Amino acid sequence: MPSYVNRVGNNLAGGGFTPEKWSLQLNAVFWAVSNLMQIANTNWEGEIKANGSVVNIRQSPLISTYDYSAGGTIQYQDLTDDYVSLRIDRAKGWAITRDNIDEVQNDINVFKEVATNAAIQSKLDIEKLIYSLAYADAGNTVASTALTSANVINWIVQQGVIMNENNLPDDGKRWILVPPSIAGLIATSDIKNQYMTGDTKQVMRESFANDNIGTVYGINVFVSNQLTKTGNTFQCMSGHPAAITFANQFSEVETGNLPNSHGKYLRGLNLFGFKTVKPSALIYAPATLG
Q1: For 8-22, 120-134, 141-155, 176-190, which range has the lowest pLDDT when averaged over its residues?
Q2: Which residues pair with 84 in a beta bridge?
Q3: What pLDDT is recorded for position 104?
Q4: Which one of 52, 69, 93, 224 is at 20 to 30 Å from 103 when CA atoms are compared?
């Protein structure tokens, strides 16, 4: 085994007396932050888990009023029974193997490390898939904008105006997803003054709670590395959690013996579905860096 320390001359240069040491601490993986539970709802997950792979979600009928005069004729309205279907039609899986000899001789529980990492990776892959598809369902679109620190706040406010026009609940749950580069524009805009974010800290602080850098015009600003990017355009979105619903019907991690060798397998599976149930509560806001 060679030594990795620079050496002059040939004295013990072969490294035969220098043993290698394997660290018991694995090199960390830096995971993206997940925002899915802040921007979506799980209102129907319980019904999906109870039975079936489809939940038909009935829309509340809209009622129209009419002008009435004494002696006039009552105008009856037919009720609609529209619905949307939340289907559990997607699955994410992972699997590894380990020989029994490795199990005996390894000094690290690899299965434990892999199970933890796989659970995180599965969650992030599901989130990225949802973001890559959901923006096309948006009932509102903002023209693609080249953003700078001078116009990024106006861009967010424009989306807030659309939310108001669509009567989205003003319950503190309105959101917008932006990539780190656009978050940087926000942090160097006039929003750096804490009175604009609605919290007690300045945006230029070192870290943010749950990657929420504050609020603009009543909208929670979340930073995500999971947004789709097409060419130079980020497929940003904003809206209310009422727009997208998510349901996880089945999650499992299991281990067993391999049939054709002396070893074990470890595998996991997530069965899930999502649906944009209220397009009017979702805004598609493509953006580039100006």
Answers
A1: 8-22
A2: 57
A3: 67
A4: 93
Residue closest to 145 by CA, chosen among 128, 131, 157, 129: 157
| Domain architecture of the chain: domains with CATH | 36-289 (3.90.1690)
User: At residue 54, what is the residue type?
Assistant: V
Q: Which among 40, 34, 3, 84 has a CA at the least distance from the CA of 246? A: 40
- DSSP string of 247-272, one letter each residue: EEEEEEEEEEE-SSSSEEEEEEEEEE
Q: Using one digit for the tens of pLDDT, what is the confidence trace for 221-272?
A: 999 999 999 999 999 999 999 999 998 887 788 888 888 888 888 888 888 9
- Dist. CA 60–CA 63, nearest whole Å: 9
Token digits for 66?
């009419």
In the block, which residue shows the tokens 């800290």? 201
Q: 27-31 — which CB contacts under 8 Å span 24+ positions?
A: 29/117, 31/120, 31/121, 31/124
